[in-house]
Amino acid sequence: MMNSDTSYTRKADDDQQQVTFGAGPLCIEQVVALAEGRAVPTLNPDPAFRARIQRGADFLDRLLSEEGVIYGVTTGYGDSVTRAVPPALVAELPLHLTRFHGCGLGADLSLEAGRAVLATRLCSLTQGVSGVSQALLARLCWLLEQDLIPRIPEEGSVGASGDLTPLSYVAAVLVGERELYRDGQLASTAEVYDALGVTPLVLRPKEGLALMNGTSVMTALACLAYARTDYLMKLATRITALVSVAMEGNAFHFDERLFAAKPHPGMQGIAAWLRRDLQSGELPRHSDRLQDRYSLRCAPHVIGVVADSLPWWRQLIENELNSANDNPLIDGDFEHVMHGGHFYGGHIAMAMDSMKTAVANLADLLDRQLAQLVDSKFNGGLPSNLSGACGERQMINHGFKAVQIGVSAWTAEALKLTMPASVFSRSTECHNQDKVSMGTIAARDALRVLTLSEQVGAACLLAAVQGVELRLGLQQLSLADLSPALREMVLTVRAHHAPLVEDRPLEQELRALIARLQARHYPLYGDKTHAE
């Protein structure tokens, strides 16, 4: 049988990075790489790190032997802090914590999200002030390395006292209970451990609380949301360039001198990308409009809000990621027990509430661009609904008509979800948790808004590519007349999606394209693809 104090590491393959916990701060990209299976985890082998972890655990042992009063160790939890736990029952308390919080509902987190949760909780505990054992850290690292991912229902957290209920599913797997995913399939944890010859952990005093009392679910979701938002920002910029070509837009709306007069650096960067994509307006224009409508002319101003917010969001998310966010904290070096409220997820809540608003605005921007593109009253001579049918076949073909309706629906739903979650604090747990962050709900909302906006992006990308091809045909130009970036985008989309000439169901094509976008398949503005 596998001993509970064994250290587990695996050498990274040539195409995988290694992420070391306990050696220094982690970044969002490392969490995302672990979540997507592009990295392998390891614990810091430095004896000094291991000694620091051990000092915290030893200090707790000494306090217990001296009958010290420690919240969540010799007392009940939350409002039950006034209830003293008899010494003979202290060892059972962590298991009870994991069990009574096993009431999560709703859909289960994805495997990617589950991996990110393991990574974020491990990062917090390796800060060295949670009083946990080396064995606990090693087992968490092993679960992630072996891709044994706890099943975690997404609903049930108010974001303070941390993500108690969803994190209880991580703690339950450590003690051999509930379910986990093995090879992507749901299985009984006990049966998997038995098959692998693994002994479940017996949680030490404080370890149940250390595992569950923190912000690791909301932070994990925030890391994934950040990566998706960054890519969607770039996709919206590329789609805007395609739509500008299709609409014979005025590329000089993105002039460098113009944007020097309003110096938001992210917005200026979006305008620079558009200038490069449009080759500074070198395509012929036949439009008599001096100024494009706002969804083209103001695109850098809309997309630029995301670009300028990303550094701020990164700061909030990475600070939370690299924090010790349980309670109490255990200073094994100077032998202090510090009671506080680091489980409060207000910073993640603020980041996610603002992110979902900015992302929904991207969906709204693309929705407005598509509405122009399909409407023959506004699209400068393109076929109605961008239909590729010719002659009398035009009478029965409807192109992107229904897709535009779908885009409108997805955009409306995304906009509806921008109500801030953080303002809906609810007093819970006998009014002990009387002000809570709702950070996990905000993060889940942000991911839902991202999914809806990615659906909008996929539909608008297909339509924009078709619009470009139709415009080039009208101008008797070819793909060679486009900038290299736009030409490559059209060709890579067409590798999977034929032009829409005769009406056909697009559901499966849209689903496939959305999956490629979520995998960041198409390199955009310096990205490197790591997908198929």
Protein model, in words:
By secondary structure, the protein is mainly alpha-helical. The chain has 18 helices and nine strands. A three-stranded antiparallel beta sheet has the order 4-6-7. The protein has a two-stranded parallel ribbon with strand order 1-2. Helix 9 runs parallel beside helix 16 and helix 14 (346-374) packs antiparallel against helix 15 (401-416).
| Chain-averaged pLDDT | 92
Query: Taking Cα atoms only, what radius of gyration do you get, to the nearest Å?
Result: 26 Å
Q: Which parts are unreliable, with pLDDT below 50 for 5 consecutive residues or more?
A: 1-12
Question: CATH superfamily membership of the largest domain, which one?
Answer: Fumarase/aspartase (Central domain)
Count the helices. How many?
18
Total strand segments: 9
According to CATH, what is the class of the largest domain? Answer: Mainly Alpha
What do we call the CATH topology of the largest domain?
Answer: Fumarase C, Chain A, domain 2
Structural class label? mainly alpha
Major sheet: size, sense and barrel closure?
Answer: 3 strands, antiparallel
CATH architecture of the largest domain: Up-down Bundle
Percent in strands: 5-15%
Helix content: 40-55%
Domain tally? 2
Order of helices and strands: EHEHHEHHEEHEEHHHHHHHEEHHHHH
Shape: elongated
Measure the end-to-end span: 39 Å
> Strand arrangement, largest sheet?
4-6-7
What's the quick description here?
By secondary structure, the chain is mostly helical.
Element layout with pairings:
Elements: E1 17-21, H1 28-35, E2 39-43, H2 47-65, H3 93-100, E3 105-108, H4 111-125, H5 134-145, E4 148-150, E5 153-155, H6 164-174, E6 179-182, E7 185-188, H7 189-196, H8 207-212, H9 216-246, H10 256-260, H11 265-277, H12 294-297, H13 299-321, E8 329-331, E9 336-338, H14 346-374, H15 401-416, H16 439-474, H17 484-494, H18 507-518
Parallel strand pairs: 1-2
Antiparallel strand pairs: 3-5, 4-6, 6-7, 8-9
